[in-house]
Amino acid sequence: MVLPLRCGQRPTPSPRSTPPRAVVLVEGISDQIAVETAAVCRGRDLDAERVVVVPIGGAHAIGRFLTGLGPLRTQVRLVGLCDLREAELFRRGLATDAGPPRTRTHLEHLGCYVCVDDLEDELLRAVGTAEVEALFDSQGDLGSFRSLQSQPAWRGRQPEAQMRRFLGSGSRRKLRYARLLVEAAAGRDALPGPLDALLTDI
């Protein structure tokens, strides 16, 4: 009997005897964690489905990464998730003989989904500031977050901006909350649109 995966439990990778069916290109490790967590929350096992999520080390690396795929590029389904400010880099990287995709809609038709402004922003909006604060509290981080809010540079700023700064300021905090925020969004049936569309596409 195979037990279903719980939300937040990542499947154990197994040696691949066949090439992947699909490759998901993301900018960084936190994006990889978010995609893999969202898949588990949807009851998916990407390893069993031969889907690989690859952090390419920033949008500027997409051209070099795709070139490095060689013939495999035409043999797998390529999908991607990128920030709004990096969409042009993905657009040029996905250029074909017919030219680069011309619009965001065309990008999505090719399987590249754009977050506004980035996936972190999308998740904070999906979860909501009150729920994010409750999440900080559950992780013992609310006091540290309040300290950031009281700093002159951040006092009176929008809560979402404060939360973004807080998530990016601690060692590995952004990686840890990538999973927690996706779980919270999935629990509200509110996965961000680009992330939801990407999962549907693979």
* Main sheet: strands, sense, barrel: 4 strands, parallel
Helicity, as a percent range:
40-55%
Counting DSSP H or I runs of 4 or more residues, the number of helices is 10
Unreliable spans are 1-6, 8-15
Shape: globular
The CATH class of the domain at 22-120 and 189-201 turns out to be: Alpha Beta
Output the strand order for the largest sheet: 2-1-3-4
Order of secondary-structure elements: EHEHEHHEHHHHHH
Radius of gyration: 18 Å
Give an overview of the whole structure.
With 202 residues, the protein is of the alpha/beta class. The protein has a domain at 22-120 and 189-201: Rossmann fold (3-Layer(aba) Sandwich). It is 48% helix and 10% strand. The protein contains 10 helices and 4 strands; from the N terminus they run E-H-E-H-E-H-H-E-H-H-H-H-H-H. The protein has a 4-stranded parallel beta sheet with strand order 2-1-3-4. Helix 1 links the parallel strand 1 and strand 2. Helix 1 (29-41) packs parallel to helix 9, helix 5 crosses helix 9 (173-187) and helix 7 (142-150) crosses helix 8 (159-169). The two termini are 26 Å apart. 33% of the residues are buried.
Task: Give structural attributes.
202 residues, Rossmann fold, 4-stranded parallel beta sheet, 10 helices, globular, disordered N terminus
